[in-house]
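Duplicate of #3305? Posting structure anyway:
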């Protein structure tokens, strides 16, 4: 039986809208995986070292038969195919794909933590997640709405349309 999973997508290099569109296509083609819906896209300030371009971020809801570690490996392969280089932690990147939530499961290993360990701190993930799943709760019962209410909305702007290339409301 497929698991309901939420993924965070972000890019701030090499035409971020194109990177996100290509990632959506690749995710939809993963074995045993169906793309259910994609949240609105947001432009957000970069978190990390040095001066970086702003990010384009979104969240997708998928159903997948892939187990968490297999899904992580598949997502990392998509990142690599799209030119991701893991040089500087939180540095600029062509593509960042994160497993935010995997059904109602919790996992804490060196390679993978579910729910994503910084989910509650990142408005650029919480807002698009709330756009597509406002009633969602974390495995520990914490409502997504509570996390979003405790996170500042500063630094993100909803884009007018998917792939709008930077136009904002």
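Output from current build:
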């Amino acid at each position: 039986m497929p698991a309901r999973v939420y993924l965070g997508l972000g890019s701030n290099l090499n035409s971020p809208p194109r990177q996100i569109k290509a990632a959506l296509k690749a995710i939809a083609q993963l074995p045993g995986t169906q793309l259910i819906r994609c949240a609105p896209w947001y432009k957000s300030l970069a978190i990390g070292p040095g001066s970086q371009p702003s990010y384009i971020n979104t969240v997708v809801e998928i159903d997948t038969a892939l187990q968490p570690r297999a899904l992580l490996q598949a997502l990392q392969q998509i990142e690599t195919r799209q030119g991701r280089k893991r040089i500087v932690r939180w540095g600029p990147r062509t593509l960042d794909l994160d497993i935010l939530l995997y059904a109602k499961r919790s996992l804490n290993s060196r390679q993978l933590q579910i729910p994503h360990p910084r989910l509650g701190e990142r408005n650029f993930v919480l807002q698009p997640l709330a756009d597509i799943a406002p009633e969602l709760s974390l495995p520990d019962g914490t409502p997504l709405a509570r996390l979003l209410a405790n996170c500042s909305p500063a630094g993100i702007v909803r884009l007018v349309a998917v792939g709008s290339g930077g136009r904002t409301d």
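Confirmed duplicate; merging threads. The longest helix spans residues 68-81. Residues 3-158 form a domain with the Alpha-Beta Plaits fold (CATH 3.30.70.560).
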